[in-house]
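Ticket #4471: structure output looks truncated?

Reporter: J.K.
Steps to reproduce: submitted the chain below (187 residues) through the standard prediction queue, then opened the result file.
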Amino acid sequence: MRDRRQPPPREPPGPNQALEIAARFLATRPRTRWEVGRRLTRGGVTPDVAEATLDRLAQLGLIDDADFAHWWHAQRDRHSPRGRRMLEAELRAKGVPRDVIELMRDAEPERGPDDVGLPASEEARAAVALDGHLRGRQLPSDPRALQRIGQYLMRRGFDAAVARSTIRARAAADNDAAKVTEAEDEA
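Returned output as attached by the reporter:
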């Protein structure tokens, strides 16, 4: 007698079903080869069918780890800027191979027509992250508050030197804005 709580055993998905599983998974956003492989394994696809499906998807250009890394980088720049260290950690967590990450580290991100206005350097990304953190407020003058802001930037993956230079540049900009406001008030 069979236990009613367990579904009857079913045979693993074939190549066409595996391709369908992968296509549904890829419909929401680009994915890495590793992510798609994990999804196929969770779907009960046998390793040989999964590998054949991954190869077919790569031939069709639907999975490409280098393209994914550039897409991920642009998305982070657009919505939530991160430092190089955190970006690389996120890509490693997504299964992007080390050699692709190293190639991306050496090259500037490729920008398309939709990417106009995105920060192009580590310092620019840190400035955008700092502006988002301050939300229109001025930079505090308290040394402990400045230290916490520096730690915030470092938790976002920016180097200590980048965090310091970004805070100094913001402090100088705030001082210049204050001087202009004072001059306008006197006039």
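Triage note (M.O.): checked the attachment and the full token line is present. The two ends are 94 Å apart (CA to CA).
Status: closed, working as intended.
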